[in-house]
Amino acid sequence: xxxxxxxxxxxKVSAFLSIVALALQSAGSATNYWMSRYTFRDKLHxxxxxxxxTNCSGNYKAPCTVSEVPxxxxxxxxxxxxxxxxxxxxxxxxxxxxxxxYVGSRTCRRLAVACLAMTxxxxxxxxxxxxxxxxxxxxxxxxxxxxxxGLTVVAITFNIAAGVLLIPDLAExxxxxxLQHEGHYDNLAQEEGQAMSDGGGAQPSDYRDDxxxxxxxxxxKGAPVFQYLNYDKRxxxxxx
Length: 240
Fold this sequence. Notes:
- This protein is about 45% helix and about 20% strand.
- By secondary structure, it is α+β, with helices and mostly antiparallel strands.
- It has two domains: about 160 residues, Butyryl-CoA Dehydrogenase, subunit A, domain 3, CATH 1.20.140.150; about 55 residues, no CATH class.
């Protein structure tokens, strides 16, 4: 069986990118390097995160101390950034869960799940971009964005890419390539080289004009058994 079931390659790559984006967003939100101020002359090295600050000022070997964000850095814009980034992180988590289920479980491989995942991916990107824009706008003079901020930029980029990669999967969801079987949806491109008549998934050869299904019964009370036999249009055999 193909890796991760019968989901498309687009969906698999999208799920992978959403997981990477979630990890990067989590790391960026949790670390303290959203902006920094560094001066060699004054021996000042001060970095600020969403929740904590790290102060490494002083001598070269001076210890770093972690503390709460000072009141001078607390404002409504910082509060808004925290809220937006938390919402983006929550949406990314839900997206990753949806895509893992969509790729790994045939019962969840439905159009509604794919649409929901793509919608949340783009909503998370919008929230993240809004948070980054507000953060850049409130950075004080002589301060610069840090690498934690950069992690969230990469995370949002991957998140957008994951949403875009789902578009071909939705566009091809006309289900000429999908078979409803036993209440589940399976891709017809199952087990390569094994036709439906051999117990495998449907192959293009199973839909040739010279193949027709017939019904044979097993015993007077037997249930119908579907078989695929070659049907010659020019030579009708057995009255069929």
